[in-house]
Design goal:
about 140 residues, single chain, about 0% strand, mainly alpha, 7 helices, about 70% helix
């Protein structure tokens, strides 16, 4: 994730410095658009990835389930697709952990399992946040 953030921030700096139209050939190639569309793109200032908000960190630390529900709601509100598969896998694993707790099954690796869920929830949060930023910034 650190490399992705570093690369994204470098791309922001490059676009901010050179302007988005500097990358017209790349945009045409990957976005399947024409010169006219590119010439009409507004000047956009891209912001670096910011740290998660403290309230979000507290929610995730306090309750993975609540954080997953919050992320699912946010993804639906913003019509985000990145991370949907990851969300379903983490939710299923979280539910499995809850089912084990309810049945009184104690996993000797329970702390590790929870920390892994927490790590994957943070990763999902970052994926959703990045997708949200990208969807807000670029629309063709």
């Amino acid at each position: 994730m650190a490399e992705l953030i570093k690369t994204y921030n470098q791309a922001c700096d490059s676009i901010n410095q050179n302007g988005i139209k500097h990358y017209a050939e790349i945009i045409k190639k990957y976005m399947k658009t024409d010169e006219k569309t590119i010439s009409q793109l507004p000047k956009i200032k891209f912001a670096h990835v910011a740290s998660p908000k403290q309230d979000d960190i507290n929610t995730i630390d306090r309750n993975v389930g609540e954080a997953l529900r919050m992320l699912e709601k946010r993804m639906a509100e913003l019509h985000l697709s990145a991370g949907k598969d990851m969300l379903e896998v983490v939710k299923a694993d979280y539910q499995l952990m809850l089912d084990c707790f309810e049945r009184g099954i104690q996993d000797p690796n329970g702390d590790e399992v929870y920390m892994d869920l927490l790590r994957r929830t943070y990763n999902l949060y970052n994926t959703v946040r990045l997708d949200s930023i990208l969807n807000r910034r670029v629309s063709f």
